[in-house]
Design a protein that fits this description.
Length: about 180
């Protein structure tokens, strides 16, 4: 009888552990991820036109606290709006024409700055682009994890790089100071 109780306790613990792992996996990889192409791909393919973007916000991100996952997390972040149509078009043009998909070979780049762009669309939808300004022996570049429209989970983003975005972020991100 004693061994039966031990077996039940072990089985119960295994079930509880499996449920905990499933919940953590759901939160990290499924929660907040919406189907669809990443924003940059949608922009490059014409699924999203530049004219559909009404505003871009730069959200201040501090890596100590980790990337936000929920809309309530994003709403607490400091932000500055870019509403000038010319500046919006310059940023979108850099994303559309000067962003390459995937990780490029680099020799130990160092991160200078982190941030998030919130892209607002006429439809009322939005998406997030998580960026890091980095530097290696060839110069500065921006790595971007681009989410699909409506996604809030940074783990669902696809990786792009753009050197052209560095100068725009220097001008538009008030928290990006030269290193």
């Amino acid at each position: 009888m004693k061994w039966t109780r031990v077996k039940l306790l072990v089985a119960g613990g295994a079930v509880a552990a499996a449920l905990a792992v499933a919940a953590i996996g759901y939160y990290l990889f499924i929660f907040g991820v919406r189907p669809g192409p990443p924003f940059i791909k949608a922009l490059q393919s014409g699924q999203v036109r530049q004219e559909e973007v009404t505003q871009i916000e730069v959200l201040r991100f501090t890596p100590i606290y980790g990337w936000p996952f929920r809309e309530s997390d994003y709403s607490k972040m400091q932000r500055v709006a870019i509403s000038d149509r010319g500046e919006i078009d310059r940023i979108l043009s850099a994303l559309r024409t000067n962003s390459s998909f995937g990780i490029q070979p680099r020799n130990h780049p160092g991160t200078l700055h982190w941030g998030i762009l919130r892209i607002e669309l006429q439809s009322g939808q939005h998406c997030y682009l998580y960026y890091q300004v980095e530097r290696d022996q060839t110069g500065d570049f921006v790595s971007v994890d681009a989410n699909s429209i409506g996604s809030s989970n940074p783990n669902g983003g696809k990786y792009y790089e753009s050197a052209a975005l560095v100068s725009l972020l220097r001008r538009d991100d008030p928290w990006f100071t030269e290193q």
